Structure formats: C-alpha cells, structure tokens
Amino acid sequence: MNTIWLSSIENREGPKYKALAEAIRHAIRDKALIVGQKLPPVRDLAWDLKITPGTVARAYTLLTDEGTLEAAVGRGTFVAPAKAKTESVVAADHITDNVTHSDTAEERPDVVRLTSPQLPDVGQRALIQRLMGQVAANPRSGVMHYPNRTKFQPAREATLHWLQGTPLGAIDEQDIVLSHGGQNGVSLALQSILSGPTPVILVEELSYSGFRRAAALLRAEVIAVPMDAHGMIPEAIAAIAKSHDVQAICTSPEVHNPTGLFTPVERREEIIEVARAHDIQIIEDDCYRMGASRAPSYRMLAPERGWYVSSISKTLTPALRIGFVVAPKPSVPALRRSAEHGFFGLATPLADLAERLLADPQAAEYATKVNEVFGKYVQTCVNALGCYDLTWNEDVPFVWLKLPEGWRASAFCQAAESEKVQIRPAEDFAGREARAPHAVRIAINAQIAHDHFESAMLRLRNLLDSPPERISV
C-alpha cells in the first residue's frame, strides 16, 4: 500500500510533506484509504518512501490539524470520519500561496458586523493548534509551578524576534513584559507610571476607548487633546500640562484609531519636547499597525520616557490574548512589579505557546498573508465608497468615513443596521462630553465571503447616495 497510492509523491512540486499530505488526501478521495483505516507508523512509511521521519510526521500533523486524519494515543493514526473534519480543512483546501479564497470557506452571516476587525484564517489556526499540542505534550515551564521571570526568558526572546524591524532603539529581552493582550499592556504601563491623588492622562480627542477604561480603573482623570491632520497639537498639550498633573500621554501615532491618521516624526519630536519640559511619559499603542513602521517609535526617540505596547490580535489571532509591553530602561523594574504583583505573569503554558508561536517562521508568513487579505477587502471598500471623504490604507484593517451633508453619524449607523450592516459612529471614540464629528469607522471583516462584504459596501454606498430629506422652515 505504501508504494502504490503514494507513488506519485516524487512528481509533485513543493515541500515533500505537502506532497505527501496531498497524496494521502487523493488516496482517501479515491477510496484507496477508507474511514477508520490505520496509516503506517511514521518510521515505516519514511523508510518505504525514502524520506525522513520528520517529513512524514509533519504531513500527518497537517492532516490531523485539518481533520482528515485523527490520532489516538498509543494506537496510531487513522482516517477520520467526514464529520470530524474541522473548519480548517475547508480553509486549507481553498487558501493558496497567493491567498485566494473560496466562498465555501467563509461565513455568510445575515448581519454583517464591521464594528471590529475580524482576521481571516490563512493557515495560522492549524499552526496554533499544532503548537498547542506540542506545549501540551512537553511544556518547557512545566504545569506545577508559579510563573517566574527566569522561565519566561525564552518567551521574551521570542517576542524580541517577533519585534525585529520595529524601530524601538536599544532593547533586550529584559525590557519586555508579556501581557494579556494590548489592553492589559496599556493598563500595566499606566499602573507603572501613575502616582498621587489626582493623576491625569492625555488622549487624542478621538481615541481608542480602552485608554479611558484603563484610566477609569486607576481613578485617573482623562483629558482629550485637540488634533490636526498630524495628531495631537503640541501647544495644546503644553497648555493643559501647565494647570494639571499630567503624567502620561496615550497615543497611537502609526495608525490612529479610529481615523487611521499617521503622526510624522517631526510632530513626534515636538510632542517629546513638551513631554520632557513637563516630565510626561508617552505610551504608544501600536496594535493596529500591520505593515512596516513609517517613523521611529517614541521609545526610540525618547528612550527615557517612551513606552511601547502591541499584541498579535490584529496580525495572527485575538483569541490567545498575547501582548507585550516594552518599557523605557529606567522604568523596567516598575513594569515588572506591575505584572508580577498584579497577576504573577502569564499562565506558564501560554508563555510556552508564545515562545513557540512568535519564533516560528510560519507565523511571520501568516501575518503577512493576513495583511494581504485585509488589503484586498480594503480595496473593495475603497472601490465602493472612495468617491466620499474616506481615509484608508491597505495596511490598516479599517477605514474612516466622514459623512456627507444630510447624515449624522448615529442616524447613518441606524440606517446601516436596517440594511444589516453594523458599523461604529465617531461618538464611540470621543469623551462623554465631547462633540464628535459626523463620521463612522468601518472595520474589515475578512471572515465573511468577499462578495458578501462587497454587497455590504454597496448597501452603504446606496445610503450615502440617498441622504434623508432635509426639512426647511
């Protein structure tokens, strides 16, 4: 059997483990292998095919992850029943090297939710499942001890590898603390910075609502800073700092959430000058950047007061809640205390998984593919809505739409929901007492079929083309 139905492996292109996996799939489709049939042991099949046991094991793992095969501890590997196949087998069948998709691999929900970016599965699901299996079988940190700084060193080194190319200045693994996602990272940074009875943090006048939530938990006052096309206005920061105990600025200079604006290096340097004059720390939230950095980070430009927060939620998966905080050198001990005294550190199996995932070369490849898919959906959005005042970037998984005259943001969101499309108004990103512009953020949902997404964009376009009638007196 080993040589008959696998004889074509030598003629297949690409990596041998993929060729072997495809040969097994064909054998199952052709009934040469039937449900419940046991496959040869890894070493036996490797010997017969004159390939390495590692190649066979990788093919078996790939097919097990997608549900084509199933492994029974101590018994071997068997052909799985059709009903046991997971969603990932559908995705695997339809995701190619150039990241094309089939509608059968994606959702067609009745209501299209575009309130938060939804990542496509381009193969990272199977990778994560495989790595979770490896951690379960042989956890580096063990499963019977509290987390500790020494055991997390490999995970921090993997994070350093993941961040290579990000302009962070002088950095080593000791400067990094792992967090439960970016939001927890922001909270850890603020816990490490704030002191006194009435601390104040500054945010952009439209900003990520998580900044305000973290401040509220720490009983800090939040003051919104006026913005222009380049971000926070330095003179406004200085004016506020003269009359308030401003201790931190929370900002997203690479990809401003929700407008998508970018803060150039010249503006960053002006903000740093004000921050130094008033001894203010700067927390940079970089969770939404998917492409290359366009300017040095605040940590690189102001190493004594620049903090950096990011995660894998927009690049690989939000489910694992793996984030990281890079502190300025003088504040590293304070950041460690915030994490260790607050929750001791990540669960050790999660740290072990982070170590494997962030160092795996496939993870970076999948992050690039996720970005490519998002870019195609963004382009579809631009094709439909680009004749209006739209801010967009193919490396950003949302667009910002300033509404034409006749539409208010809340009314437009209600009208969109009546068309079974959910989006977020500008009010969601403003303070309670602030006046928000008539604009909406449209997030990219790459888990739905592309034509389904395009249909939603065309429904929004129809609404924009037909604003409510204005009543004149």
Account of the 3D structure:
This protein has 473 residues and is an alpha/beta fold. The protein has three domains: 7-85, Orthogonal Bundle (Arc Repressor Mutant, subunit A); 103-124 and 363-465, Alpha-Beta Complex (Aspartate Aminotransferase, domain 1), CATH 3.90.1150.10; 146-359, Type I PLP-dependent aspartate aminotransferase-like (Major domain) (Aspartate Aminotransferase, domain 2, 3-Layer(aba) Sandwich), CATH 3.40.640.10. The chain is built from 16 helices and 17 strands. The strands form five sheets. The chain has a seven-stranded mixed beta sheet, with helices on both faces. Strands 13-14-17-16 form a four-stranded antiparallel beta sheet, covered by helices on one side. Strand 1 and strand 2 (76-79) form a beta hairpin. Helix 2 packs across helix 3 and helix 5 (124-137) crosses helix 13. The radius of gyration is 25 Å and the shape is globular. Mean pLDDT is 89; it is low at 84-105.
Topology at a glance:
Elements: H1 16-29, H2 42-49, H3 53-65, E1 69-72, E2 76-79, H4 87-94, E3 112-113, H5 124-137, H6 153-162, E4 176-180, H7 181-193, E5 200-204, H8 209-217, E6 221-225, E7 227-228, E8 231-232, H9 234-241, E9 246-251, H10 265-277, E10 281-285, H11 298-301, E11 306-311, E12 322-326, H12 332-343, H13 348-359, H14 361-385, E13 389-391, E14 398-402, H15 409-418, E15 421-422, E16 424-425, E17 439-443, H16 450-465
Parallel strand pairs: 3-15, 5-6, 5-9, 9-10, 10-11
Antiparallel strand pairs: 1-2, 4-12, 7-8, 11-12, 13-14, 14-17, 16-17
Helix pairs in contact: 1-3, 2-3, 5-13, 6-13, 7-8, 7-12, 9-10, 14-16
